[in-house]
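hey all, quick one before standup. I had two proteins in the batch that finished overnight and I want to keep them in one place so we stop losing track of which output belongs to which input. First protein below, input sequence then C-alpha cells straight from the run.
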Amino acid sequence: MPGARAHAIPCVMVHDFLVIGGGIAGTSAGAALSALGSVLLLEAEDALAYHTSGRSAALYEANYGHPVTIALNHASKPAHESIDGGVLSPRGLLLLGGPGEEATADADIAAMSLEPITAEEAQAIVPILDRTHITRAAWHGDAWDIDTDRLVQVYARSIRAAGGDVLTRAQVTAITRDGRRWRVESTSGSHEARVLVNAAGAWADQLAGMAGVAPLGLVPLRRSIARMPAPGGHDVSGWPVLLGAGERWYAKPDAGAWIVSPAEEDPVDAPHDAYADDMVLAEGISRYQPFVTEEVTRVTGSWAGLRTFAPDRCLVLGPDPDCPDFVWVAGQGGYGFQTAPAASRLVADLVGGRAPELPAEIVAALRPDRLRRGD
C-alpha cells in the first residue's frame, strides 16, 4: 500500500562459536577459538567463574592426576609462566602419612616424583606439624599457586579483544538447530552460531541433552573446604600445601587464613550450586588433626564445588563424533586451571583442522570419540 511502512525484521548476528559456560574451561576455549572466528560466551551467573572455577584450590602441581592429565599439566606450564607476565607464585607441596598409611604414601611419593624427607625436616618447614605422628613425609618444591581470577579475566579480555563478546546473566533456556546453525535462547536473548561449545562444567551432559546430543556419562562429585584462622596465630603465607597420603585431606594457606578439605568425591544426584556438608567437613578435619599440634577450635566459613569427571577420569576435549559442530570442553575434574592452556589449544587445533602439538596417544585419550566407542 502506498505510504505503508515496512516492519523491521530483527537481525540476529551469527557467530562462528558460541561458548556456553564462563568458568576456566569456557573462557580459555573461547580465547583459543578467537583466532579462528568470532566468539560469543554465555555465563548463567552474575560473574565469570562462579561455580567450580571460583572454588578451586588454585594449585599447579604438574605431577598430580591421571597420566593423561599430567601430560596436559606439563604442556600448560610455559603458558602459565608467560600469560600476563605469569600467573604462578611459589607454594610447594608437603605429603604426609601417618601410622598405617606407609604403603599409600610410598605409592604417592613414587607417582608424583616427590623427595622423601624426615618428619623433623617436615616440621622445620611447617612448625605446627606433630612429628611423632608422621611416619612418611615427602617434599616437592615445584608446586605453585595459580592466580585463578587473573587467568580467567585474561582469557575473557582476549575474547573481547578479538571482537567477541562475554555475557553474564545469560542462562540458556533452549537450544535448537536450523540447518547449519545453532540457535540458543537465553535470558540475554536469542543467539546463533555455526559451532556450539559445551563448557558447562557439572551441567555439560544436561546441556548436551538440550542440544539433542547424546550425553557422555559425566559425573559431578562434591568437594568441600573449611576455612579457619591461621593455626596458633602463625604467619602461614609461606607454608606449602599439606597433602594427606591417598589424598584423604589437604590443607593450604588462604589469604592469611588456613583451609582444610576432606578431599571427598561424593556423587550428587544432579548438578547444583554446591554447599559443604558439616559432617563431611568434620570428618576431614579429624583426619587432618593428628598431624598438627594446634587444635582446630573454630571454622569461620565453608564452601563446596563440583568436580566433574568422565568415566575414565580424563578430560573430554573436541568435536562430538556424531555431531561435529558440537564441541566438548568438559570433565576437567579438579584440574581445569592446571590444564587450561594446553587443553584450550588442543580444542582449537581439533576444531581448526590443525595438527595438535600433543602426542597422538594423549589426543586420542582426550577426544569424545573414546567414550562413544567404549575405549
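OK second protein, same deal, sequence then C-alpha cells:
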Amino acid sequence: MLPLSLMAQNKNTQKIVEQIGNAAQSMKSMQCDFTQTKHLKMLNDNMVSKGKMYYQQTNKLHWEYTSPYTYTFILNDTKVLLKKGTRNDVIDVNQNKMFKEIARMMMNSVVGKCLSDTKSFKTSIAETSTEYVATLLPQKKDLKQMWTKLILHFDSKQLMVTKVEMHEKNGDYTIIELQNTQTNKKIDAKVFAIQ
C-alpha cells in the first residue's frame, strides 16, 4: 500500500507544481504589501518590518521596506540596486555567485518557480482546504549553508504565494506574508530603475 500512496502523492505533487507553474507563466506582473517577521532564537525575539513588493516578468523585482526602517532592493535583469538612506550600491549579479543565487531565489520564490527546480530543492507538497504548502529542502551546498528549509504557502484557488518561511541552521527563521496582492496591472518602469 505504501508505494501506491507515495506514487499518488508524487502524481498529485507534479500536478500542483504544473498548475502553479502555469499560473506563474501567465502572471506578467504582481504588486503587494508585505509583513516580514524575523525570529531570532538567541534573543528569543521577533523583529517585524513592513513594505511593498513589485514583480514584473521575467527578471524585475522591487522589494522595499517602509517601516520601521527604509531599505530598497531592486533587481533588473542582471543588475541589483541596494538603496539605504543616501547610499546606493549597484551590483552585477553575474560577478557575484552568491548574490546571483539569492536574487534568483527571491524571484523564484515570489512566483513559485522554485518548486520545479529539482537541482536546488527536494519538494514535497501538502494540501489543506484553502492552500498548498510546499516544503523545499535545499540540495545545493551554498543553499544548505543559508537555509535548512523553505516553506511556501499558496492560495489553492489563485495559485499564488501568500506566505514564505525561511528556516536557518541556527534556529532563526523569517516569515514573509503577502497582502493586498494585485496581478497583471501596469507598473511604472521607474519602479525598476537602477541609478
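Flagging for whoever picks this up: The first helix runs from residue 2 to 26. The chain has one domain: 2-192.
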